[in-house]
Amino acid sequence: MTSIPPNGFAYGKAAHLRFLSSFAQNSNRQPDKTDPSWEIWARKGFAMEPTDPNAVRMAALVFDVNGDRIRARKLMRSISSLTKRDRITNIWLVEDYGRLGDVEQILYNYDITLRTSKPSVDVLIPVMASALQQDEFIAPFVSLLQKKPPWAPRFWMRAVQVQPSLINVARLRKEVHNNGLPVEGRFDATLVRELVEAGQISAARSLVARIGEGQGSGELVRNPNFTRKGSLAPIDWQLASEGEYSAHIDAEKNQMIASAIPDSNGRFARQLIALEPGSYLLKVVLSEPLPENVDMTVQLSCALVPNNSRPPFRFVVSGKGSRENISIPDGNCRDLFLDVNFAIPEDGDFVDLFIDSINIIPA
């Protein structure tokens, strides 16, 4: 047997190193039985230094591997009064509180681990984001995020991309907003986009209504007169940023400005809108007449592709704008993409279009 100095710290460290070796040999899982030397060193270390975290933890793991979960739990919980930086203890406690169904304590130990162990971030953040599939995690997450933990940006970055959790991530985001806690706009934009792409359009609209800039009473198109930039596409305007063409909103001039080069075509702008069955008037107003060699069209198509049994509504814009009567029949798709498209011939000129408004009103 390895020679170890006869003191509790040395025995505790030796037991810890032997445990790590056994852990690695067992495919990074806690071994099913103790190594004889590990158990002897752990017991000696704890007897000699009952306040050394290494010694206490290793004694607890001996009890755990031997089936005495209660004594193991008592010792593991006592370590938090000695140190909060013991990653193995924190992770063990997370698993144990998971067995007990104690969500608040699970998140508390995640928080402690993330604050004290940088290597844990890549492992625990995805686990936490996936945990939001369960409704009972929402309220504890709100309480935890109120403390403004340093790992919060990494959490949001991951959470807004975990599709099975998206509905609850949106619920969490609204609760956090109610409490006045800031979240980076790029995460909100990603969450709205992911919700729409996942077909969770009602959840996306509800989220934007809570955290976004207000929509005018009775408006069917958000920001039809371009008085603000908006950042929560496609509920707000989704603007092109391609090599050959692009669009942006100048909120000071209340215009959408679209630019393109010759021999290009595509979609300048898109917005997801909702229209109930009925008759409507679609209006497009330009600051200057549309150049003769530029084709500009506005199109309405179903946002839910499997339900897209009807061809899209499409009309051509000319002069300084156009208006068109449209009818949405019963049973048609309610969620529609409003697209602004263009085409410029190869022999055309560089083009800047200045759009004053794009709106839909009841007829």
Walk me through what this model shows.
- By secondary structure, this protein is an alpha+beta fold.
- The protein has a domain of 125 residues: Galactose-binding domain-like (Jelly Rolls), CATH 2.60.120.
- Helix content is 40%, strand content 21%.
- The protein is built from twelve helices and ten strands.
- It has a five-stranded antiparallel sheet, with no helix packed on it. The chain has a five-stranded antiparallel sheet with strand order 2-3-10-5-8, with no helix packed on it.
- A hairpin with a 4-residue loop joins strand 2 and strand 3.
- Helix 1 packs antiparallel against helix 2, helix 2 crosses helix 3 and helix 4 crosses helix 5.
- The radius of gyration is 30 Å and the shape is elongated.
- It starts with 7 loop residues before the first helix and ends with a strand.
